[in-house]
């Protein structure tokens, strides 16, 4: 169903992108076993040249960066179209995570020098990057608890710490690292984001973490990284010292729309495979799977869920575009958990409809599951978003849960202080 | 969250309507026990005068009918606002079911004579009407199976049959009756819609059906009606003989949007009560219900579901307005079951949050449940819509389920014929 | 499916009970409109005589009380069989709530004098009783918060307070009232259970609370009751002063098994009606509702849920019988929310399968819903049981949540004290 | 919670088994990355010797086979205990699938010669076996549709066909192959089970199928196998020609109990990890994950689901032991889908509670998911079991769905025949 959000500007681009995805990328799935995703990177790199030749590279970029200046809401629709070729689409069009997020971040907040050195080749697809925030020893949903330290020595920071789920670190040219620079400041002003080139002595990829049976490599990987006396110039800080948490917030709004629209495109992919299977798999002589109401239930529920999610995300993106992210924080929280869950339900149904084939790597379904089950965890687990959303809602009803939680933390600290006497 | 669908035309109307609902209707809930809804009708009738005085009567009507000529999408937003006062809002503003549906039907399809006689006083709120389609002996979801007959005798139809769930028949001035006029035609061309004044000899309300413990009366009732040799002029047929099924289809598209937007407004009402309770109910000394994550879960899931549903319905209404209902049949099916289920989940959570109070008639919640549990049943049960939606989707994938079902029916008739030899 | 729990002693009783229910009680449903349950009491009272004549009265009673000395596990199976005739079975066999709970309580804990005066006629079905614990102003799930006071004056208590959901107070001979007798004791030792004859001056039924559209009367009602200077002798206290909370706990273990087994029997009733409808309702020529997989899904899920629930409850009852309720508190919590939810799901499916008929009072389904939606609320809401169960489990893993909550309460009291200075 | 099913005979065995699992197997999980399961086989083979030394080998075997002659219900409890060490337990104790199923099959139905040659070394753990039934081109849930042919030539069968999901074929000594021997017989009498040694010319493992990112090897694998002119003696048929389908049925009853009890043990494992994490993971200073009600909800729901499932399966096993599998087919269908779904829900919650760690292979959780998502598919998908169960139930209500389906098949064949004229 076309939505009200399809502008005249984006409509022809959508046609071009869908055509490219359909003709150039989806055929790559044939016979490809998705248990070793990185095997396909060389072919995807060739496709990138075709995309550039067609003028479709970097559709997320602003006009001055050589893009089309699409709004978040418009690019969201492009992103959905790319996600019809899961794993392939965004990479080939140069707007894959985590690079797209780093691009936006550097574009908005980095110094000219950093832009010249890091942003330019990143936008051109000449290098890749990674984002190093979460630590194994601390719950990722609380960005104010962090052990990685960047201690200032002269004009340098000396960084020590351990990060994990630094996605795509393997082969990246630089990392954006979140580290505590001001340990004595208020919690939300302690950390900074600092660029660390991956050839900096002391930067070490300990391992690509095996995730659901695949450690992966290159872009398709999530590294555990240690920083041991990593020395970088102070000018590598993005925006300024102590602003790490604020930058993280800035990154998250559009980032969640990106994730959500990719999931919606992925969900459409799963839906398409589910319907193809339902229409073509004979289960008894002359009876197709799709004639069974169990399957019809899967299909109808999925259709409704996907369409409702799309409108929810696009309206949220539209509001970000028009009234600013700070006015729609509730919606940004809500779409994150709502879409992630809907997507995983659709995916699960598609797997079920494929029977034994569904659990193999012969279709893209199980790979999607393996790589996206985390959708309900990263960028804030479902539970964290729901708690935040409800707290925000109830505040309007006169119940300030965060204030009470704060008082409680103070009490706990007081108790801890007493008991340590 | 404001949506993209709020036009400049509807925005000031929304403000007025919300104000009226808030100031005039919601206070009526105080101390009102919802186990006898009809007790409040006299008061609502007074409020109607205020609405008329404020120029807000009949917001669903076209300009030439004295309305504001709102699109379906715009009126949907009004309808949601009215539904913040469940049971009261639509009635007071003169756009309550089933009259709104009959108004639309007569406006589009009735002869000038019928309009003059029935539509005009209906629009003015001087009379009420009912719609008599479902029969106790046949599954309502299959409108081609029907036992009520209208036999032509001279210039009259003589109608015999039994209907039920003829909502608001008690006190109505006329019924729109679905009856078989052409039993030998193709199934979809057998029935007609005929106006039967309720003072016609042979029209009898057998009972107001007790629904979830309340038989109700007047507008708040669902009658079982018998038609015994009811004689009405042939000119009482709407649009023409044999068009009953097509009219039913016409009625359903906008009708479903109306239902869905009312449910969304009702859901917002339940949500509001849930949050008020969560913010104000102390469960331990100094601890409010809303501090509990179980409750936060209810609130957050509900917020996301309602907002996604609203956008889904409004986009569907917008498509009906712009490309016509026949191009969005899938969406019309999808919103029906999707929104009904979401609404009932929200309502159930609100009841749970209220504890013992939630099952009483001291709040509007249990009355909403009693009167709206049928949302998943009437106008096509969930299961029927899902089957239709999936069939329509799979047809695009080359599997024609309806065609196979048709062959199967033919086989069954053949078998039945043989076995009866 | 027969279970391992069916002993030789209970098997013949089950046969007799099922036969009686089938032949004498289920026929009463025919043509009975369930929107006025109390209309049937006179007929049920006649059936009671037949039960007594057949030696089946009071199957919950011990041998010395004239019963059969069944274990809780054995009686549970009887209770399920009685619940195949919802609302009728338990009453006719003299083991209806709240009398069964009061019987158990008095039997175990009351003085000989109280037994003679209250228990004897109660067991004989000559009088009815009620249980008055919950207060509208306090969350029922926290029995230590209570405003009703019983002040000792000489040999009397003078009781003042407001209770609600005092089920079956209308027509009862006495109430067991929970009231604070020792306000300065530790929270769990403040309240007592006291017998108050309903003809005591100051005992007033303010109203039978309308619940889901039915205020009811007599046994089928839930009263709001005020106690104004109600004076009863101190000897009316059960077991002893300050033991109210402990008695409540004692009452709850078997009480939950009773509830659960009744719900399972009710669920079987709903299941039976669902299957009958599925097998007999034609939805197209020659096609029965039960041929649709949507309906098959409802039936199969329900079958599995009911059977799993029964085994869970009976095993819990068996453990209560053999190792004592204090050793299976976790299971007692778990069955409460698990069975209540499963039952309500089965019931909802049965309603859905009945279509429009399902929401009427022409079947017992909607009455069951109206009277049992509270199953997830009373005797501890789902959320309370889940919190308690998880806390108990996590304590074995070294996390003492209750202790932390206690510290937190102290902190809050401290803060409150400070802020009031 | 101990259940009523724990006999005096099995109680001491359970103690021994649990101790071994706890002390010898669970420590192997430490630091083991579950993305390459076969790496641990050499260590597990050492543990097997300890098991044999302790007299705990082959606890599923009858007394005459050197086992303990446990009932199915008793062994089910052992199986659950073994599954606390997922992947390790059953293998180390010599009762892993598919060998346990083949053992039962050969024990009951094979000739003495086949027993001597294949069963004996299989029971001793000297060889492994596989079971070759499902074909990629046919829905596995319909065992009467099959393309693999075994054509008799003299005293040999010559077998041709393609199978997949022939689990553990890699390294197996022989396969039990389902093949059509009597193509003209009634559908259920066409196929036979035949032993094919894997060194038979023409037996070829085409690949170990990558499943959720892991192709595996050895015991941990699912092969796609081709049979090309595989020649085996006619005496390799088990039980007799045409009995393949009946043997498959025989295999399935106990097989489903085995699966279910393994899943329940696996679910307990996931539950245990979930609780450990909840009790030890600090999410804010001084606040543990388990203090959050979202997590408490997960824990409580899981506790109830697992305990209800266990009782349901054990009661079913008990009925198989006492009244025979043919009298409890409905329950055997029901536990299959009911337990598989409950297990996967528990597992999903455990993953969620672990956050990012949960999707890695650093815990056993994601490996369990990858290897057991198929639980809802193999041995009959959920949908097939539900359809069968509902059909069986509704037959008692007078609706014979299978008969109608049969008539429909005949019609379709008739139509197909006509259209091919």
TrEMBL record, chains A, B, C, D:
Single Gene Ontology MF annotation: acyl-CoA dehydrogenase activity
Domain Acyl-CoA dehydrogenase/oxidase C-terminal residues, every copy: 244-393
InterPro entries on file: Acyl-CoA_dehydrogenase (IPR050741), Acyl-CoA_Oxase/DH_mid-dom (IPR006091), Acyl-CoA_Oxase/DH_mid-dom_sf (IPR046373), AcylCo_DH-like_C (IPR036250), AcylCo_DH/oxidase_C (IPR009075), AcylCoA_DH/ox_N (IPR013786), AcylCoA_DH/ox_N_sf (IPR037069), AcylCoA_DH/oxidase_NM_dom_sf (IPR009100)
GO process annotations (BP): fatty acid beta-oxidation using acyl-CoA dehydrogenase
GO cellular component, one term: cytoplasm
Cofactor: FAD
One family name in Pfam for this protein: Acyl-CoA_dh_1
Keywords on record: FAD, Flavoprotein, Oxidoreductase
Domain Acyl-CoA dehydrogenase/oxidase N-terminal: 12-126
Domain named Acyl-CoA oxidase/dehydrogenase middle: residues: 130-218
Family note: Belongs to the acyl-CoA dehydrogenase family.
Assembly description: Homodimer.
Protein name: Acyl-CoA dehydrogenase
High-level lineage: Bacteria, Pseudomonadati, Bacteroidota, Cytophagia, Cytophagales
